[in-house]
């Protein structure tokens, strides 16, 4: 049984805002700061030409098995949420599904934390070069630009992400590379780094068959010493007994001095199709 959730033509509506239930749950004192980071996203201006439906909330799926059905003129078809190729091919679908219906807040939350740290460090944001890994269709770059970041280079493993970023947010990236970080040669890596990056950001892209720990390590190596790292990861991926390898990598980096943690916030990343909250951690650290 399916529940059709929205109409073919979008109606004018209020911009998305962080409501109390989407605030970090461990650090209530940060409410004011994160609220300031909540500005309307491109989701408010993209028009849609499709119908979309989600499973009944009573049906429970693992995060990497969640799905929707979409009709963009050629009949209904099922799409897995992690089928980013097909999702990015449909203009506005990613925004409608994740940001409007499932209320994803990760890009503004993490970008706000990163920029807040830069301001604390008294850094001129307009001179910053940020590498956005798992960049997707550019929502993170859009949030960084809004906050005054001078240069953003996107990196993703699929062409469809680069094409969607160019189609929906032209100009937010200075450069966009379609690369598999686990297969990068030394020369290619040096070429990407060229003038050096001051910060790495990766939002909603670690684990679940997306960016593996070894690719994250390659991305870390592209950032200059003392540079900032801002990333999100699902809460339980950092627990003692998780098997993805991220907990071990992050622990090793922190204990060996490769990363110094500056902020860690647990927040509501989005809703699951059950409409229950999915909690992620946003971490800001300095490279040692
Ligand atoms: C949930 S999307 C997040 C996109 C964007 N960061 C955002 O927050 O809107 C995950 C992105 O990670 C990308 N991705 C998955 N595996 C990857 C890999 N090994 N290297 C680079 N990008 C990858 C996917 O193609 C997809 O664009």
UniProtKB/TrEMBL annotation:
Organism: Hirsutella minnesotensis 3608
CDD domains hit by this protein: AdoMet_MTases
Protein name: Methyltransferase domain-containing protein
Residue intervals of the Methyltransferase domain: 130-188
InterPro entries hit by this protein: Methyltransf_25, SAM-dependent_MTases_sf
SUPFAM superfamilies named among the record's database cross-references: S-adenosyl-L-methionine-dependent methyltransferases (SSF53335)
Highest taxon in the source lineage: Eukaryota
A Pfam family recorded for this sequence: Methyltransf_25
